[in-house]
Automatic annotation (TrEMBL):
SUPFAM superfamilies according to UniProt: Nucleotide cyclase, PYP-like sensor domain (PAS domain)
Gene3D superfamilies documented for this protein: 3.30.70.270, PAS domain
UniProt-listed CDD domains: GGDEF, PAS
Ranges of residues in domain PAS: 31-84, 136-182
Residue intervals of the GGDEF domain: 293-422
Natural source organism: Simplicispira metamorpha
Domain PAC: 85-139, 207-261
InterPro entries: DGC-Regulatory_Protein (IPR052163), GGDEF_dom (IPR000160), Nucleotide_cyclase (IPR029787), PAC (IPR001610), PAS (IPR000014), PAS-assoc_C (IPR000700), PAS-like_dom_sf (IPR035965), Rev_trsase/Diguanyl_cyclase (IPR043128)
Protein name stated in the entry: Diguanylate cyclase with PAS/PAC sensor
NCBIfam families registered for this protein in UniProt: GGDEF, sensory_box
Molecular functions per Gene Ontology: catalytic activity
Length: 435
C-alpha cells in the first residue's frame, strides 16, 4: 500500500478524502468503555449527520444512534471491531436535528507497520432516498397485485414484459406463460380489422385508447374487458411501453345477454313476445323481399277461449296457453318463429315457404294442438289463417289478409286452416310498412 501511494503527495490525499462524495470518518482503535473516538470526519460526513467536525472530534460514533437503530447490527459491528475484521451493514441513524436516515456503511481496521490496529476507517452513505424509492416500488408492486383489475405492460414492440395477478385471475394466464408473447394471444376473433386499426391509430398519436374488448381466456371462454391502453414515452417522446389496464365485465355482459334474451320471450307461453316478434317478422320480410324467396305466415287463434276462462278460471286458461304454445313450437321447424301476437292469438312465420309448403305446416300445428288433452279444459282447438307474401305486398297487407283468413276459419266452424285470398295490391311499394 505504502509503495503504491508513495508517489502521491499526502496533501493531495488529504484533499481527496475531504472532498470525497461518500462520508468518511476515522476513529481511533480504543476498545475501552468509552469505545473508539472520532479523530477525523470529512465534509460529506458532516453534511450527512448535521454535526460539524468540531462537534464530532473525540466523540464515539454512537452519538448517531437512536431508538430505531438496529441493536443486532450494532452488536455485529462491535464484534467485527473486537476481532479486527471488516464490517459492512446498514441501519437507521439520527442527524443532529433528530431526523432519522438510513446509512449503509463499512468499517475497515487500519494497521501500523507492526500489524497492530491503530484506527478504524468507515465509509458511509445515506441511502434514505434509495430506500424510499425501493419502498415505493414495493408498494406499487403490491398495489398492482391486490387490485382486481388486470394490468399488462408491453415494450414498444408489443411484447409482454409484465402482467399482474389480476390479469392472471381474469385470463387464466400466469406471468411466465405470457412473457415474451404479444397480447394477440388473447384475440378472440370477435373484432374486425377496423377495430384494431382504430386502436393503433389512436396509440400512434400518443393517445390513450379505450374500448371494450372481447378476449379469449386460457380456458377458451370469451371474456369481456373494459380496457384502457396508454403509451408511455421517454423524455425524447419515443414510446417505451404500452400499459393496458382492464376490468372484467364478463359477468355483467353475460347477465345482460341473458336478460336481453329473456326479454325477447313472453313469460307465460315461451313464444316470442310481440315486440321482438315484430322485429323477427320485419327481418324475415326484408330477407324475402331482398332474396325473392317465398315467405308465408299464419295467424292461429284459440277457439272459445273465453269459455275456458269463464268455466275453469284464468289460471286454467293460462295453463292451456302455455301447453299449446309449447306444442306449436315443437311442431315447427327450428327456423320458423312462434310469436304471441295477442292474448290467445299466435302469429307463425314460415321463412322460405310458399303457400303450398305453409299450408301443411299450419295444419300440423292445428292438429298438434287438437291432440292435447288439458286437465280441466279437455280438448282445445285453433282456427288458422295462412298466406304467402305476394309481390309488392306490404307486411301490414299480408297480416290483414291472413287475419281475414283466420276469421273465415272461425266462421266456417273453427278448428280448421284457411288459406288467405290473394288480392292484387294497388301499387308495388316493396317496403315493410306499419303493422
Ligand atoms: N287466461 C288467460 N286468458 C287470456 C289471456 N289473454 C287473453 N285472454 C282471454 O282470452 C279471451 C278471448 O276471448 P274472445 O276474444 O272472445 O275469443 P274466444 O272466446 O276465444 O272466441 P273465438 O275466438 O271466437 O273462438 C278473453 O276472455 C281474454 O280475457 C291470458 O294471458 N290468459
Amino acid at each position: 500500500m505504502k509503495t503504491l501511494l508513495s508517489h502521491i503527495d499526502p496533501a493531495v490525499l488529504a484533499v481527496a478524502l475531504e472532498q470525497s462524495f461518500n462520508a468518511v470518518v476515522l476513529t481511533d482503535a480504543s476498545l475501552d468503555k468509552e469505545g473508539c473516538r472520532i479523530v477525523y470526519a470529512n465534509e460529506a460526513f458532516s453534511r450527512m449527520t448535521g454535526y460539524s467536525e468540531q462537534e464530532l472530534l473525540g466523540r464515539n460514533p454512537r452519538l448517531l444512534q437512536g431508538p430505531a437503530t438496529n441493536p443486532d447490527v450494532m452488536e455485529w459491528l462491535r464484534e467485527c471491531l473486537r476481532q479486527g475484521s471488516y464490517f459492512q451493514g446498514s441501519t437507521i441513524n439520527y442527524r443532529k436535528d433528530g431526523r432519522p436516515y438510513t446509512v449503509e456503511w463499512n468499517i475497515s481496521p487500519v494497521r501500523n507497520p507492526a500489524g497492530e490496529i491503530t484506527h478504524f476507517i468507515s465509509v458511509q452513505q445515506d441511502i434514505s432516498n434509495l430506500m424510499a424509492a425501493q419502498k415505493t416500488t414495493q408498494l406499487f408492486a403490491h398495489v398492482l397485485n391486490v387490485t382486481d383489475d388486470g394490468v399488462l405492460i408491453t415494450n414498444r414492440h408489443g411484447v409482454i414484459e409484465f402482467v399482474n395477478k389480476g390479469f392472471e385471475k381474469i385470463t387464466g394466464y400466469g406471468l411466465t406463460e405470457v412473457l415474451g408473447h404479444t397480447p394477440s394471444l388473447l384475440k378472440s376473433g370477435e373484432h374486425d380489422a377496423a377495430f384494431y386499426q382504430n386502436m393503433w391509430d389512436t396509440l400512434k398519436q400518443g393517445k390513450t385508447f379505450r374500448g371494450t374488448f372481447t378476449n379469449r381466456a386460457k380456458n377458451n371462454a370469451l371474456i369481456y374487458c373494459d380496457e384502457t391502453i396508454t403509451p408511455l414515452t421517454d423524455e425524447a417522446g419515443e414510446v417505451t411501453h404500452y400499459v393496458s389496464i382492464f376490468r372484467d365485465l364478463t359477468t355483467r355482459v353475460l347477465e345482460e345477454q341473458m336478460f336481453r334474451e329473456t326479454m325477447r320471450f313472453d313469460a307465460l307461453t315461451g313464444a316470442l313476445n310481440r315486440a321482438s316478434g315484430e322485429m323477427v317478422l320485419e327481418k324475415a320480410y326484408m330477407q324475402a323481399v331482398g332474396s325473392k324467396l317465398p315467405m308465408s305466415i299464419a295467424i292461429a287463434d284459440v277457439d272459445y277461449f273465453k269459455q275456458i276462462n269463464d268455466t275453469w278460471g284464468h289460471s286454467c286458461g293460462d295453463a292451456v296457453l302455455k301447453a299449446l304454445s309449447r306444442s306449436l313450437i315443437a311442431a315447427l321447424r327450428a327456423n320458423d318463429s312462434v310469436i304471441r301476437w295477442g292474448g290467445e292469438e299466435f302469429l307463425l312465420v314460415f321463412s322460405g315457404c310458399d303457400l303450398g309448403q305453409a299450408l301443411p305446416l299450419a295444419e300440423r300445428c292445428r292438429a298438434s294442438v287438437q291432440r292435447l288433452t288439458h286437465e280441466q279444459a279437455g280438448q282445445v282447438t285453433l282456427s288458422v289463417g295462412v298466406g304467402e307474401l305476394q309481390p309488392g305486398e306490404t307486411l301490414a297487407q299480408l297480416i290483414e289478409r291472413v287475419d281475414k283468413a283466420m276469421y273465415r276459419a272461425k266462421h266456417a266452424g273453427r278448428n280448421q286452416v284457411q288459406p288467405a285470398a290473394v288480392v292484387m295490391p294497388p301499387a308495388a311499394s316493396g317496403t315493410g310498412g306499419a303493422f
